[in-house]
Amino acid sequence: MIVRGFTYPYNVAMGKTAEQISEVAGAVASRAIDGNVTAYFSAGSCTHTDVTSYPWWRVDLGQEYVIYSVTLFNRGDGGDSGKYLKNVKVEIRNSTYSNNKYLCATHVPQVPRGGSIELSCQVPYIGQDVIVQLQHMAPLILCEVTVKGFKYEECTNEKLGPECKNRCNCRDTNEQCHPVYGVCTSGCAEGWQGHNGTCQVDTSSFPYLTTAPDVTSRTGDSLTISWQKWSPLTGSGNLRHHLYQASVHFLPQQKHLLTQR
Q: How far apart are CA 256 and CA 246, in angstroms?
């Protein structure tokens, strides 16, 4: 989605405020959000904590964002130093002073040395803090952290999404859907559908079945069905009727659609 020159979701962490449990050799927490993805600690691009149990790194986004995913960039130099970025937990917190955390994602295998891994949240979460923590004793070394999301707003007037630019499309035209997920408790307006209560797919121009498919012939190893479909006629408000038919032949241990017309 493109809104005012930005592609949503985009990196909302760069240049924000970061901290970590400890610091080694001047490898401050802000190195992970400076926009430099160089994988070399020697280039001054990576953070580094002491060896400790459950070391953590945190970025304060300054306000609430809708967060989709967090990408971690691992160290590529220093011999075995890249082996520690594994068994990672990423959490989202409502604010710096809140203990209300949401588990975004976990990743057990080692992130490839000099590589990166994007960890998608189970669902988009609303939060201000992103916390990266190892679940074992080791130093936490991060060469960059990017957080994909967009600024959270309490939308009104049946709108949702980035800058409240999208319509809810609820059946009840007075309903305000969820500003992030777009769930309509009244169902979808005519011509709209979606998943899990959302109504963001425009079906008004989609062809659809007018009746259930009919079985026109059947043998021991084949089946022919037909169905009717309506599709819009370009440039007018009329509809044009089409008839479709398909034959399916069942082969041993396989099912192949061999002909369609």
A: 11
What does the alpha-carbon distance between residue 34 and residue 27 come to, in Å, rounded to a whole number? 12
Whether the CA torsion 1, 121, 159, 127 is positive or negative: it is negative
Domain boundaries, the chain: 2-151, 154-206, 208-260
Please give the full DSSP string across 57-113, using - where no structure is assigned.
EEEEEEEEEEEEEEEEE----SGGGGG---SEEEEEESSTT---EEEEEEE-SPPPT
State the chain's maximal CA–CA distance in angstroms: 77
Class of domain 2-151: mainly beta
Strand-pairing partners, residue 245, are 226
Gyration radius of the chain over CA positions: 26
47 CB burial (10 A radius; 0-12, 13-18, 19+): buried
For residue 8, give both structure tokens.
């949503």
The structure tokens listed for 149 are 């999301």
Determine contact, residues 18/29, Cβ cutoff 8 Å. yes
* pTM score of the predicted model: 0.73
Alpha-carbon distances, residue 259 vs 123, 144, 222 (angstroms): 41, 52, 11
Residue found under tokens 């990672």: 88
Q: Cα(88)–Cα(32) distance, rounded to whole angstroms?
A: 16
Structure-token match 């989202």, residue found: 92
Structure token digits, residue 203: 């079906």
pLDDT tens per residue across span 129-180: 999 999 999 999 999 999 999 999 999 999 998 889 999 999 999 999 998 8
Percent of the chain with pLDDT over 70: 77
